[in-house]
Amino acid sequence: MDSKSLIKDIKAGKFLPVYVLHGDEAYYIDEISDAIQEHALEEHERDFNQSIVYGKEADLLTLISDLRSYPLMSERRLLILKEAQDFKLLEELNAYIENPLSSTVLVICHKYKAIDARKKLLKSAAKVGVIFKSDKVKEYQLVDWTLNMVKAKGFGITSKANMLLVESLGNDLSRIVNEINKLAIFIEPGTTINEVHIEENIGISKDYNIYELANAVAVKDYLKAMKIVNYFDQNLKPGDFIPIYSSLFKFFTQIMRIHFLPNKSQEAVARALQIHPFVANGLLSSKNNYSPKKIAANIELLHIYDLKAKGVGNQSMPAGELMRELVFQLLH
Question: Where in the chain is the domain with CATH 3.40.50.300?
Answer without folding.
Answer: 3-133
